[in-house]
Amino acid sequence: MTTAKKVGLASVVLVSLGASAAYYSATMALRGYEVHTRTLGYLVLGLVAALTSLILIIFWRNVHRTVNSIVSQLDRMAQQREFGLIMTEGDDELTLITQPLNRFLTVVKEEIARLQAENREAQIQSRIAEAEKRHTEAIVFSISDAVIVTNRFDEIILANEAAEKLLGFSFAHSIRKNIDHVIDDGRLVRLIRETRSSGQSQPIGAARSRLTRRIVEHSIDKKGQPKTFNVTLSCVMTPEGKVSGVVAVLHDITREKEISQMKTEFVSNVSHELRTPLSSIKAYIEMLLDGEVEDEKTRKEFYEIIANETERLNRLIENILNISRIESGVMRIVREPLNLAEVAKRVIEVISPQAKAKNITIIDRVVPLYHPIEADRDMIYQAILNLASNAVKYTPNGGTVTISTGVDERRNMVNCEVSDTGVGISSEDLPRIFDKFYRVKGHTKLAKGTGLGLALTKQIVESVHNGKLYVTSEAGKGSTFTIELPIMR
Ligand code: ADP
Fold this sequence. Notes:
The chain is an alpha+beta fold. The protein is 56% helix and 18% strand. The protein contains 13 helices and twelve strands.
């Protein structure tokens, strides 16, 4: 039972007693009895006390209602997590508390609103930063060059897949680890570290930004294959001009280097190959001019040598020009519907006298082909002739050369195969025979050659006609070269 209820109950008892006393005194007085004044005094006092209690109860109930209303409003705010003002009815003493409380709540509400706005702004900024970070990462990850980004403590903070593959580490496991513990390549680690420290030691300003980028050529051994890279090392700068890290980009220049090496080799090979027949021609002409050759037979022999060497020179120049024309794309290509079997037949006719001279049997397995190809007649003829002429050249007397044609309808291809029972090619030489000027060492005695025939044939078949040129061979047993060309649609 609350205090208010207890006081209320007591008041009701006292009011009843007071009222009964008053009624009793009044009745007695009316009947002419003498009323005991002292007792009456007590009863009146009780009545007054009861009335006072009643007034207090009414006041107390008002206060209680207001306090309840404040409590429930505060509870609601707490539940809804929203600040508002405390509303009270009337204008009693409690407003002395609610007014400063409301002022306090207003200040808190404003402060919360300010903090929420700041928080929202911070979230937006963080999302923008996150999006920019992802954007940068996406760019870095899509680059085919290897990219490594380190911070000012030389720890890895970003690396793409190309870098992981090249340097053999996992970015997920290396994040924030020092490059020392992640990258095995000591020189690369040194380069990154040097770039960072040289950037830091430069005076802040324009000079520093100019000095923070350098390109270094660096070689990395990848599974036993040395690869050359251009490593671009740049310092990452803070807006204040301080070095915050290094970006290293490794661009593979192995192929470019090989090409430039091949060009140099090609030029020196060409000059060497041209010089050999030229010096021979020059020597024989000089002997003839000096009158050193007296008998007609030797003179004729010399003329024949000169003619042969001139022919070789001519072939050489023709082949070099054809290869470079195809490579540079200036070769005029006349494509027409062509029957590969017909071209193969013509080659057999042309090569037969050469084969006969060496007592080589040509086996003609050319079957009619009903699927035409779209190709340059002269070029395809040249390609098959090169293979047939090689087969005859590198087959000892009495051997056989088989020329056949076929069709692979499933793969939409026709083919021409030239196989011989000749000297064959060892597995070490096999991958190199299509290189320009490459001749198998032991074969140079067997026949004259330029080392350009197969390179040209490959260009004609693969680059110009989208076909394939295969070889299978075994030293001492013979070789089979196959040209495969797509059927015309
Ligand atoms: P070459 O003018 O020297 O014949 P090719 O480019 O036609 O130049 O051939 C390159 C080399 O490949 C030849 O020097 C030879 O050693 C080898 N070769 C080509 N065809 C055959 C073959 N049928 N049998 C054995 N070796 C061959």
